[in-house]
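S1.2 Input.
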Amino acid sequence: MTTPPRIVVFEHGKLVVGQEYDCADGGKLRFELKHFEALARFVSRSRWKPYTLAHRSVCFGGWVGALRVGRLLIEVLPKADRHAWEADDPPHWRRALSMMLRTARNTTLKHAELAPLDEENASLMEIYIERFVGCVEKLLHHGLVRRYRQVEDNLPNFRGRLRVVEHVRHNCANEARFFVEHTTYDHQHRLNEVLLAALYVVRDLPISAGLHGRCRRCLLAFPPIERRRLSTSELAKLPLDRATRQYQEALELARLLLLHHAPSMDSGGLDVLAILVQMSRLFENFVGQLCRRTNLPGLRVSLQRSVPFWGPDGGTIRDIRPDIIVERKGYHPLVIDAKWKALPIVGPSVDDIRQIYAYNQYIGATHSILLYPKSRPVQTILSGKFHSHDHRLSTAALELDPAGTANLKALVEQMQTIVERASTAHPVSSISSEGTL
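S1.3 Output.
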């Protein structure tokens, strides 16, 4: 199967009907009215709004990833500051996004690494699909889980419990068969049904011949189970136990493929598949994982920890949830708030400063950091103290600009330097504990 044409657009960009855009593989491609209508139908049927519609145009917000419209593939890439650089560099931002997606995973999912795809040319859609197919291949290699279930069938031998009414209805003229209800032990259960449904979605996608062949081999190796339509409620609740824990990542990716796939019901219409992530959430998780990979002794990193903030008497308590709380023995807690936006030249906004003040007060931190992606060759780093209080706010930046050569190891070293400087500047012994909660 040939690779589909691919348009690259950056977050907060837009596509206009009738305009031509550069393809990832060279040449020009026109964004047509049929593509706009398919995307409009998709967003109108879903509560999820990864983009908005204007007059004959699609406006993208803070979601990045890949959209397939028929045979057209639209890649939405992140960019820290779209006005900071004269020339775009899609391969760099594609590599950066791929690195964030690999890193910002739960620790139970890190075993499923990406195959050595050419990330310079491979589409983000194929990177997601390769991860899913790789997980299914691993499950098939180890053997899919079987479960007991109750079935009714008209059998030539007696087994289980006779269903008298159905037996009379089906076998009144056939004494050689029995309509019975019995227990069987096979692969027919919801988890395997979800994987199989997602494999059939992947089979019909315009992907590279190598991935398409791997998907078909998975379908051939899959045990014979009955295909059925899965409802949204069934996809939302996929209980796992000790025997099916290894299904977790494959099910997450399969659910993503099934929930965000909208087959066209109209004659001549275009199918839509959206695999997008919110860039601000991805950056928060990515920074948290960088903190956990540092080599600082006695480091404890908490992501999105809830702290009681306010509540009416006898009512529901409202919480605050800092992005990252870093704790080291012998030092005050350090709060890191990840911001996927360009740091203004004049410094952080008043709302961000007030947010950090509340974090310091309720967490007991003496130093907090607003962490931004470095989007300019020269970016001012600020630090200041809250008046009449013993805690500070500083800004910091991670090197993610297209001119840089940042990789995961270099980013971990940057993060370690930032955390070490901020935490060691205020050990517990050097500051009075008054006011610390």
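S1.4 Remarks. The chain has three domains: 6-143+190-279, 147-186, 293-430.
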